[in-house]
Amino acid sequence: MNLLAVLTAYLVGAVPVGWLVARAFGVSDIRRQGSGNIGATNVLRTLGRGPAVVTLLADVLKGYLAVILGAALSGGEPGITAVATVAAVVGNCWSVFLGFRGGKGVATGLGALLRTVPLATLAALPVFVAVVATTRYVSLGSLLAAACVPLGAVMLGYPQASAVAALAVAIIVIARHHANIARLRAGTESRLGRRSENQSPA
Q1: Is 85 exposed, middle or buried (0-12, 13-18, 19+ CB in 10 A)?
Q2: Per the domain annotation, does 198 fall within a domain?
Q3: Of 61, 104, 141, 167, which one has the greatest count of Cβ atoms within 10 A?
Q4: Exposed e or buried b for every residue in 113-144, given b needs 16+ CB within 10 A?
Q5: pTM attached to this predicted model
Q6: Cβ(110)–Cβ(121) under 8 Å?
Q7: Number of structural domains, the chain?
Q8: Alpha-helix runs per DSSP H in the chain
């Protein structure tokens, strides 16, 4: 059942929400639009606020659901639940349904971590909001918030497996933003609210 739990979390996380939402709104392949990413930021730039909100909320929900299912199938075993948390994000970033390509794990990671380390995740949300509000860099807000979650998990006394899962998710999110980091350092990263064909969003 443990393998089934992790596989289920991966498959739920792998559902390409942004790609499906874009198709529903008349875009055959969101990967050929804007930055080429399937996340909510690219959906926002390509299709507008409504589809982007749907994408964001559905990605968060699928992350949360993936971990719930993984925990249920493993009988609530903490170690497997932690692995399921990471599997959900891996599914989002390397989806079997899109030839092992996908998003950057931010919204799905948010949902997964809300189930695994909820207080640490909620504590990191103001960091995201403050950074995006002041700089309008979604990528920078995502990176800093992701880095805060494992630290919060340790400080709040979550089980070691959960803290390690939060760290693994943070590492994946940061690694998936390598191009954004390069643009931030070069001063060429696009800001929220500005259309750009070269922006690779969170």
Answers
A1: buried
A2: no
A3: 104
A4: bbbbbeebbebbeebbeebbeeeebbbbbbbb
A5: 0.91
A6: yes
A7: 1
A8: 2-14, 17-24, 40-47, 49-73, 78-93, 106-116, 118-135, 138-155, 160-176, 178-186
Q: Are 126 and 183 in contact (CB under 8 A)?
A: no
- Asked whether residue 175 is domain-assigned, the answer is yes
Asked, for residue 61, whether it belongs to a domain, the answer is yes
Q: What is the pLDDT of residues 56-86, one digit of tens each?
A: 999 999 999 999 999 999 999 999 999 999 9
In degrees and rounded to multiples of 5, residue 33 shows phi and psi of -120, 145
- Report the amino acid identity of residue 141: G
Reading the block at residue 191, the tokens are 């800001």
98 in a structural domain: yes
Q: Residue 58's domain spans which residues? A: 2-186
Closest CA relative to residue 199, chosen from 53, 2, 41 = 41
First-to-last alpha carbon distance for the chain, in angstroms, is 33
